[in-house]
Amino acid sequence: MRIVVHGQQAFGKAVLEALLDRGEDVVGVYCAPDREGRPEDPLKVFAREKGFEVHQPDSWKKEEVWEHLRSLEPDLCVMAYVTLFVPQAALDIPKLGTIQYHPSLLPLHRGPSSINWPIIMGRKETGLTIFWPDEGLDEGPILLQKKVEIEPDDTLGTVYFNKLFPLGVEAMCEAVDLVREGKAPRIEQDHSKATYESWCRKKDVGIDWSKPVQEVHNLIRGADPSPGAWTMHGDTQLSLFGSTIVEGSGEPGEVLAIDENGMTIAANGGAVRVSRVQVPKEKKIAAKEYADAVGLTPGTKLGQGAA
Predict the structure, then answer these.
(1) 197, 255 in Cβ contact below 8 A?
(2) pLDDT in tens, 86-124
């Protein structure tokens, strides 16, 4: 089966590597366009090392891009982390179609930040979907799904890198086998149950310390490591990472303790301890290191308008 891999970043690289390790007949590799000032995409670097000519169209709406894909005579296109819109005309070029990875249990959490939001919303479970994309946003029929638990202190980083990334590579390979065997289902999504969330950006993750402590904890871990939930320390925007819920009480936003384990901050009904912090344009550092450097002491109030 002649396979085209279309993807980017570490996940795209891992899927290509897994397919090659299995002896699959990969006949072409497409990657996202280069971005000025950014390192070369890991998928691009790896594919070139393996002798592939890497194609990086800036748009999939062009006839010449479709013609190039046709020239590869693909049986299947595997989309492993694709952010460019791909029209139906291109999706239908491979003889057996195109399959795509999405890191949520569709139809829940359609959209580009589908790992952040389930954690922020306090869900106990998420997962991944391999589906047959169409021109809708994550709306195509489902091929297979895998579920994972969101544990109490899981973060965006742990859910993705420890769970959805490795399981997603395995699921992509499983899906390829099902397509090859003619056993790949096309299960229509229940669009009445669909949810959509846009990008999880910095403006979405400002901390309101008057909210219940569980909501504060969920926000911090759902934005860890990116985009980084934040509060204000005076005039400084301070992003917080490595949150756990701990015992403690005080005014919302009050710093209750600072030690080698981190900084404990009161919220509604309890407290969170954060192990690392970051100020804009600087690296993440231990919370105690920051506190010592700027003279932050217990009793300090964090948050918008805090004295």
Answers:
(1) no
(2) 999 999 999 999 999 999 999 999 999 999 999 999 999
- CA–CA separation, 265 vs 249, rounded Å? 9
The helix-helix angle for 9-21 and 42-49 (nearest 10°) equals: 30
Inter-CA distances, 230 with 118, 223, 280, Å: 19, 9, 10
CA distance 49 to 67: 25
**Helices of type H across the chain:** 9-21, 42-49, 63-71, 88-91, 116-120, 156-158, 165-180, 213-222, 287-294
* pLDDT at residue 307, rounded to an integer: 46
The two three-digit tokens of residue 20, written as one number: 């090659």
Domains, the chain, ordered by start? 2-193 (3.40.50.170), 203-294 (3.10.25.10)
Does 132 have pLDDT greater than 80?
yes
Task: Provide the CA 263 distance to its chain's centre, in angstroms.
Answer: 27
Please state, rounded to an integer, the average pLDDT across all residues of the chain: 97
Residue 223 pLDDT exceeds 80: yes
Q: Which amino acid is located at 196 in the chain?
A: Y
